[in-house]
């Protein structure tokens, strides 16, 4: 497991953030917001940045926007964090093309989601993922998220895909710990928790890292959690996880992850606007008090410098 974890960390990182895509109120991606957010992520201990994932609102990004975004993040993160480009769609040909474009733009790895909407058979899932993996020389992280895709990657499917030399990891948002343990016991696939609510349970059963939406705000706290688990200090790990419950609930269970993460980042002054693209809508004002309370609690428990500064604003 140590060898697998070290290899995966070299390819993808361990404290990954599913980066939101900062946007201007008039529509385009905000270059200022991207630069500020990447700087914040690097400063708070993120060693892997997922660009164009679910939290990045990838269904609304054009292919050209995605190329520009990968290039901008790669330029700023070079040598400090791995850049993983989300290239999966429900169209295999489009996914293959996006994979090639991401490689040319400077991505270090690819994130390939289980094809959504089309609902292929498991054989179709295998064929789709293999086609994308064969399209470039980059390592691939599979993204298993049945709540969004409508289907899951079954254990036998993951075991088959693990035979491909470039398919090296899984972002698991299936939330089935037994299936995860079974695949980890049978393959060399590195697991990353893709559900912030379950970061500690996944790490405790052998996941080598997290891909976190809440990490947009508190990547430093996730880094502490990972270190505590690796040091077998479960008491500290539980304390860290408990300290994040309020913020995790506010971001992941109040409205929608990208909406709430952007609202939090704007509240902290890390990005200039909380703009999202339809069909997403910005956070209603009724949720702001809950978000501010959660941010203030994180600051009190030792959050980031930017969060502490925001605490002074939100608490007066």
Taken as a percent bin, the fraction of beta residues is 5-15%
Distance between the amino and carboxyl termini: 48 Å
Strand/helix succession: HEHEHEHEHEHHEHEHEHHHHHH
- Number of E-state strands: 8
SS content category: alpha/beta
Our count of helices gives 15
How would you sum up the global shape?
Answer: globular
Strands side by side in the biggest sheet: 1-2-3-4-5-6-7-8
- Rg is 18 Å
Largest beta-sheet characterization? 8 strands, parallel, barrel
Share in helix: 40-55%
> How would you state the average pLDDT, rounded?
93
Contiguous runs where pLDDT drops below 50 for at least 5 residues:
306-316
Secondary-structure blueprint of this entry?
Elements: H1 2-12, E1 15-18, H2 31-43, E2 48-51, H3 63-77, E3 82-86, H4 92-105, E4 109-113, H5 122-133, E5 140-144, H6 146-149, H7 155-161, E6 167-172, H8 177-186, E7 190-193, H9 199-204, E8 209-212, H10 215-230, H11 234-243, H12 245-252, H13 257-267, H14 288-300, H15 305-315
Helix pairs in contact: 2-3, 3-4, 4-5, 5-7, 7-8, 10-11, 12-14, 13-14, 14-15
Explain what this protein looks like in three dimensions.
The chain has 316 residues and is an alpha/beta fold. It has 15 helices and eight strands. Strands 1-2-3-4-5-6-7-8 form an eight-stranded parallel beta barrel, surrounded by five helices. Helix 14 packs across helix 15. The chain is globular. The protein starts with a helix and ends with a helix.
